Task: inverse folding
């Protein structure tokens, strides 16, 4: 069974490095695949479907991929399963080892620059019950 990771217009834009308005226009023009679900009256797609669609589109230029790490600490009350899901959605790479002490987690994000990549992760995890510290620790760029 393929992975299920629902994403909306904002997440698609963030992950593909385009504005939300661009994604909304793609939807209106029928360029995006049809949404799989409706969540709170908003369309939702499965990320692996969108990722495959984006890879096949030659006109979509994806910005470079930046790799970096943060030390991750789970706040009281957040389950490891929920934390793992949130971290994966923010671009954390496998394996993700979580415990009671801060753990180094590697992220990879597409962005126009390193700062934008790291700020996207910080903003995405803000208020989630996951604390980031000790970073970002730069690990390189991939085109």
Result:
């Amino acid at each position: 069974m393929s992975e299920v990771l629902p994403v909306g217009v904002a997440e698609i834009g963030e992950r593909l490095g385009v504005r939300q308005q661009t994604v909304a226009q793609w939807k209106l023009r029928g360029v995006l695949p049809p949404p799989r679900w409706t969540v709170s009256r908003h369309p939702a797609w499965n990320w692996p479907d969108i990722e495959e669609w984006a890879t096949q589109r030659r006109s979509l230029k994806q910005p470079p991929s930046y790799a970096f790490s943060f030390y991750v600490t789970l706040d009281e009350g957040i389950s490891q399963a929920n934390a793992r899901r949130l971290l994966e959605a923010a671009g954390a790479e496998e394996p993700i080892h979580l415990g009671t002490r801060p753990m180094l987690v590697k992220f990879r994000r597409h962005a126009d620059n390193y700062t934008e990549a790291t700020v996207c992760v910080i903003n995405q995890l803000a208020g989630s019950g996951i604390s980031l510290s000790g970073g970002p620790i730069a690990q390189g760029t991939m085109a």
Notes: DSSP finds five helices and six strands in the chain. The chain has two domains: 6-56, 65-142. The beta strands are 6-7, 37-39, 42-46, 65-74, 103-110, 130-142. The mean pLDDT is 86.
